[in-house]
Amino acid sequence: MKARRDVYQAIADPTRRAIVDMLANQPHNMNAIAHQFEMTRQAISLHVKILADCGLVKMKREGREQICEAKLDALSEVDEWVGKYRKHYEDKLDKLNRYLQTLKKEKNERHNR
Q1: Which tens digits make up the pLDDT trace of 78-93?
Q2: Cα 20 to Cα 51: distance, rounded to the nearest angstrom
């Protein structure tokens, strides 16, 4: 049985994140992608296949070229998941900021005495 790939697996690898960043700006053929990395074209093809399996890249043939295009809609799942924790950390940072302001105020009051 083949394991299902998901968007989290795709973005877990720095090379795949770099490929997505590259394709987010404009579609590229496989040679142009491979040229940007110090690894074999075969290794890049595997990374692109994983991205395609996860729905982050769409591949289309134009003549003899394989053109890769980013499909970033799949990242909305990651954004929703991260969003659950964003509020938590924003609240913590707000509390830290209030605490630091209190310390600063107390220090100023001691200094002015």
Answers
A1: 999 899 898 888 999 9
A2: 8
- Average pLDDT value for residue range 25-49: 96
Residue pair 44/51 in contact by the 8 Å Cβ criterion:
no
Q: Which ranges of the chain would DSSP assign to H, the alpha helix?
A: 7-12, 14-25, 30-35, 41-53, 75-111
Give the tokens for residue 109: 């009051």
CA dist list (Å): 9 to 37, 51, 52, 62, 90: 20, 9, 12, 28, 26
- Model-level pTM? 0.74
Give dist(CA 82, CA 101) in Å, integer. Answer: 28
